[in-house]
Specification:
Elements lengths: L1 H12 L11 E2 L4 E3 L5 E10 L11 H13 L14 E10 L8 E8 L10 E8 L5 E8 L1 E2 L2 E5 L2 E5 L4 E10 L13 E6 L4 H15 L4 E5 L2 E5 L7 H9 L2 E2 L6 E5 L4 E4 L4 E2 L2 E5 L3 E11 L14 E11 L5 E5 L2 E2 H10 L4 H13 L6 E4 L1
Parallel strand pairs: 16-24
Antiparallel strand pairs: 1-15, 2-12, 3-4, 3-6, 4-5, 5-11, 6-7, 7-11, 8-11, 9-10, 12-14, 13-14, 16-17, 18-23, 19-22, 20-21
Length: 371
Amino acid sequence: MRRLWLALLFIAAWAAPPCAFAQETALKALGRLEGWRENALVGYGVVVGLSGSGDSPRSAVTRQALANVYGRLGAVVSEEDINSRNAAVVVVMAALPASANVGDRISVTVSSTGDARSLAGGVLLMTPLLGPDGQPYALAQGSLVAGGDSFSSQLNLNQRNYPTTARIEGGATIERPVNSHLVGADGRLGFLLFEPSFTTSSRIAEAINAHFGRPLASAVNADEVRIAFDPTSGELAPFVATLENLRIEPDRLQRVVINERSGTVVAGGDVMISSVVVSQGDIRVTITSEQTASHPGFLYGFASELRSLVITNTALEVDRGGDDIVVRFPSSSVADLVQGLSRAGVDTRRIISILQAVRAAGALHADIIVQ
């Protein structure tokens, strides 16, 4: 525990809290306008051209889908006549932008829903992509690019990544225009914050009113600011562009993020710790077992059924840590604490336990988020 002693002495020397400098950022980095969002699209299609790695012939869904494809193309084929592993039934997914015109192209993700082994080398047939309202908004078609492969021979399998999911960059064409309605029925725009904060929403409203010289904005809640739009002042696009580029000083959220799996600790440089006493000690218990055998050799000639006796001797040692310490240090920051412990060689998981204990004691003025 000498390392912890040195670390806390190092922190005591650095007791002065760091100065936090305000940093302004563009309004568009703090949230989004209400109504400006992507929409999910999904479709059901067939991938062909697979080299024996598609769905097995026992898949009734695949046979029915292929029969429907042949029927739309004018060929009459029954499901019983389809016996091939060169096709697979897939689900196609895409994200429809908030604003799109007919002819724009978007990327799609294709995933197998049957027992296909790989989609590598396949081609997606024309698939309509439906929105939440059940209406088609795009058509997807093209050659798949899989991020993996799978090869098998006589029960030997060699697979890299997941070849049952593939991408088609720019593989879907928008067939219906999409326009977002930013102005509500009350003639106002809603700005929604990514991180709710009454301080930030109030600062946004004040900055907008100061820039335009009149009370256009008001903070409705911690995560919403309502902004009035006057059609007589000009077009909507320049008005929104002006709003997006306003410089705002956001509120600093006091958080310490801990990832126990990777042993990562992330905290702002201005997250403070009040005066606190830290006491940490280790109790190490060591158990040593030694087995010995007793051989009754002098009785072997008289009793042939006798066997050796195994005796286990156990030694218990307890190390209570002679270098354990109790140290009081003045107000400091989490950054200084973590930096000092790291320089002293304290492992990350022990730093995490110290931070959690300090937070439970009420000396760490921040939320701890454990991932």
